[in-house]
Amino acid sequence: MPRYAMAIDLSLCVGCAACAVACKMENEVPPGVYNLWIREREVGTYPDLWVEFRPEQCLHCENPPCVPVCPTGASYQTEEGLVLVDPRKCIACGACIAACPYDARYLHPAGHVSKCTFCAHRIAQGRLPACVETCPTLCRTFGDLDDPESPVSKALKEAGRMDVLRPELGTRPKLFYLNAPSKKGLTREKEVRHD
Amino acid sequence: MRVWGWILYGVLAAIGLGGFFLRFATGHQLAGYGSYVPWGLWVAAYIYFIGLSAGAFLLSALVYVFGVRKLEPIAPLALVVALASLLMALVTIWFDLGHMERFYYVYLRPNFRSMMAWMVWLYTAYGLLLLAELYYALRRHLPRYVDRGGITGFLARLLVKGRKTPFTQEEIHRDEGIIKVLGTIGVPLAIAFHGGVGALFGTVVAQDLWHSPIYPILFLTGALLSGGALITAVYVFFWPRKDEEWRELSLFLGRIVLGLILFDLLLEWAEYSIPMWYGVGPEFKALWSTLFGRFWYVYWVFHILIGVVVPIGLLLAWGLRGRVKAIGLASFLVAITFLAIRLNLVIPSLVHPKLEGLMNAYRDHRLVFAYLPTWFEWSVVVFSVALGFTVTYVLVRILPVIEGKLLKEVA
Ligand code: SF4
Ligand code: SF4
């Protein structure tokens, strides 16, 4: 059984938002809500200054706090480690939105909760998630964490540094950020404050 | 006075019905909550109402389970208020669901790791228990009404199967035994479901402010205080006979309310002072914004001033010195302003983005980390309140809730 994960090499991300657009189209995400967004922030102080882009979405946590809170079992985790929402079972109580430490979920205008699925429908057809396929700088890799030859395992092995968001919570995210530029030794006050 | 009361009721009922129809016609469109702040006024109102219910029920248990005879006259009324508040709570949270028509999924396919699923099951058990308790508390009076026309007569015939001979002392004694058993089951049930609501919030690790072991306890104390204060206010103002017994019982209730205000304040001190003491951490930020942020007045004016300082003043200066109306007013203020505490519990935690930067990722009027209940949301809450009042009023009119008689017989 594969254990799917994604890695994003932040040193390669140019902030073009092609992934966000591809996701919108692929998943027919309605206006006003998002499965995937690009966080932008300025790092450093003049003249030592740059902009960091960080695409964010559901991290498909291995220990997802959003799943056990769901009263109807509409939020669930597949054997392949994908965290999904069954829109037909969701009563839209909002418990999972409050429980996600990454604000990755939203209320779909159709009256249920939604979020990134790692493009489960494409994976089932043996294709890559739309964001991975579309990225012009190849900063996204996807695959089976348990297979050392998968693109994501290789990318993790080769990366200079690897981060996950809020690791202290123990959610064990399966979206990894590689080579975060802002962490390469820059520790000015503003930087520290923002981290 | 009475006329004004009915005019007020008419206005509230009209506003409430407006909200009710808008909720069905427009869904969530007119509400102020959204994707980042998924819970708002309705969730706050729901925990407020369910607290009133648990508090009123536990007050009745003082009589039925713990044998506090002094409170006996108000025990059936407390059960009725508990039932009406439960209904208010359930209706309010039902409106909050995105898919109202699917609520029964929680029965058909419950996930028992979910606190919310537990809540729904416990409320159901509690609702049934309340009905049963009310039945055994009132049925001894029903043979007298069997010959009546109208709904009272119909219910009397239905519930005691047309029996006209009065209940014997023995039978009443047996019914009291049954109530005691039901109440004894009810007390841990009420602690479970209301402590459970506290746990529903407390177990959410992602919300720093909620994630605290004091929540279940805080919820229970809050329930006792708000429910007790509500019953006290209702008793002082609406009890049909204002005699010496009424005075004495009012004073007794006033002392209970005062004690609970102080105890609740103590727990609140723990809740606020511990995360805030060193001025660091995410809880500090959320609590700071509760105290000194944009909505500071919800805490200072509605909660502390009108909900604590004024009631304590009223009780000490007049109420407990024999001016019974002051006890009623103080309790009324405590019961009403408790909603401010609930609002401050639900919302401040949610309006803080969990990942810094998300706020600036997109600009859309639906994607904001700010929340102010809209007039539509208020009107739906007004609907629940009008519903609760209506249910209580109808029940005391058609069933012998007050001293074993119908309202118009004692009035
Ligand atoms: S990121 Fe949020 S929604 Fe996604 S699996 Fe983790 S907790 Fe659940
Ligand atoms: S909003 Fe839907 S998916 Fe989320 S916890 Fe409620 S029922 Fe489950």
State the end-to-end CA separation of chain A.
Answer: 36 Å
Low-confidence stretches of chain A: 184-195
Give the terminus-to-terminus CA distance of chain B. 15 Å
**The number of domains of chain A:** 1
User: What is the third-level CATH name, the topology of chain B?
Assistant: Formate dehydrogenase/DMSO reductase fold
Order of helices and strands of chain A: EHEEEEHEEHHEHEEH
Tally of structural domains of chain B: 1
What is the CA-atom radius of gyration of chain B, in angstroms? 22 Å
Count of discrete alpha- or pi-helical segments spanning 4 or more residues of chain B: 15
- Find the CATH superfamily of chain B: Formate dehydrogenase/DMSO reductase domain
| N-to-C SSE string of chain B, H for helix and E for strand | HHHHHHHHHHHHHHH
Radius of gyration of chain A: 17 Å
Of all chain pairs, the largest interface belongs to:
A-B, 43 and 45 residues
| Share of helix of chain A, binned | 10-25%
Organism (chain A): Thermus arciformis
Domain 4Fe-4S ferredoxin-type (chain A): 4-34, 49-80, 81-110
InterPro entries (chain A): 4Fe4S_Fe-S-bd, 4Fe4S_Fe_S_CS, ET_IronSulfur_Cluster-Binding
Pfam families (chain A): Fer4_11
Structure description:
Chain A has six helices and ten strands; from the N terminus they run βαββββαββααβαββα. Chain A has 195 residues and is an alpha+beta fold. Chain A has a single domain (4-192), classed as Alpha-Beta Plaits (2-Layer Sandwich), CATH 3.30.70. In chain A, the strands form four sheets. Chain A has a four-stranded mixed beta sheet. Chain A has a two-stranded antiparallel sheet with strand order 2-3. Chain A starts with a strand and ends with a helix. Chain B is 71% helix and 0% strand. Chain B has helices spanning 2-26, 41-64, 75-96, 105-108, 115-138, 150-159, 169-202, 215-238, 244-276, 282-292, 296-317, 324-350, 358-361, 375-398, 407-410. At the A-B interface, β2 and α2 of A face α5 and α13 of B. The structure holds iron/sulfur cluster (SF4) (2 copies). One iron/sulfur cluster (SF4) binds at residues 58-61, 64-66, 83, 100, 102, 104-105, 115, 171 of chain A.
